[in-house]
TrEMBL record:
Coiled coil: none annotated. CDD domains: HNHc. One of its GO terms (molecular function) is endonuclease activity. The keyword Hydrolase applies. Gene3D superfamilies: 1.10.30.50. SMART domains: HNHc (SM00507). The keyword Nuclease applies. Residues 221-279 form the HNH nuclease domain. It comes from the Bacteria. It comes from Streptomyces tauricus. This is HNH endonuclease. Keywords: Endonuclease, Hydrolase, Nuclease.
Amino acid sequence: MRAKKNEWLTHEYFRTYRIANAVDTIMRDPFSHLRHLEGLTVNDGIYDFLPHWQKDSALHKFIRYVADEILMNDTDGPTRVPFGPDPVHPDWILPVDAAMLQYGIIDEPLFFIPDEPAPGGTPGSASDASEPNGPYHVVNACYDYLLNLRWTQVYEDLMSRITDEVFYVMFLNRRALANLNQFLSGYVEEVTSDGFNADEASLADLFVRDGELKRVRPTMWARRAVFYRDRGRCTSCGTDLSGLIDTLSVGNYDHMVPLARGGLNDVTNLQLLCENCNSKKSDNIEDPSNRYRRWY
């Protein structure tokens, strides 16, 4: 993930809530979507989530994966967006190009959806992808375009912008974050040191034992993000912590999914708890509070 240029985010809200809703829906019942999540978890995909306190958090990775799937699904139809000065007979582009235009990543569409093929052709024939009259010509052309686009810098830039925007909206949702981390914890618990090859040997140093990551002090940026997200209050009982303790005291940053239960050292796995509530929770997995203070 490219480094942030500064602390400010220009929010265009292009499909932000649609993607956020898809992410939340999957998080609520991930096991019903396992087939769609294989790309994140199979072939040791969980290894990307293991390093401590990545700014490219578990939620960033999940959002990027879901957003990419949504854009790929747009080609199966395809989903069309009008483009051009003629409202009656516009050119048609894919949502991915519309997004890149809105974010200022490109100045002109990179691809126009071809006209529908004339009747004829045999479904499934070898000529479908190349012959203009093939019944799957449009879908195949759209799919091939996006498949190739995914290897380009402009697509990487788009994914970065979309991911940042959806993360901004979703980071407040502690229940969704806990659901994500609980899903990932099942894969972390299955990680064993003898499963690493020579190139992955350094990953073994992240663990205190098989299936349990070491406890590592949260970084300053992670503590600040969680403190301000939770308004300096215990998310369980509401105790104001801002004037009672060091606002960045490590002891009040609770892993929603405990490390002993496969939890990650990840900013999305933290919540602010007072000492009493933290002690009561211990190493249990509990639903985080869904109570939030009003803006005004």
